[in-house]
Amino acid sequence: MFKTVLFPIDQSREAREAAEVVADVVKTNNSRLVILSVVEQSSPETDVMSSVEAVAKLLQGAKALFSQQGIQAEMVEREGMPSFTICDVADEIGADLIIMGCRGLGLTSEGATESVTTRVINLSPCPVLIVP
Prior knowledge:
40% helix; single chain; 22% strand; 5 strands; 4 helices; globular
């Protein structure tokens, strides 16, 4: 049912917890897994996801985690605004499903209504599975 699954990650606890669901869905559907991390365009002092090195390390760790479970994953690193970039990549790779944590590091001062997760739900070209 889900041939291609996109898993956008950051360094949040919610993203780490969503990894288990991602593994289950990918194994059950024999899906292609694409792990995405977005380097945000902001000050490195205020946001750990603005460091290219931190994002590369995060992607390698996620790939190793899935590899231990017998899942091959592709890694994509992009720069930009997370919500728009996630949806753009989902469209580019023909994702059938995006799986992400309910709240990552992208919660804004406006609260949950302006979170990356909420924006992805509203903009996504495919279904979005949110893991609480």
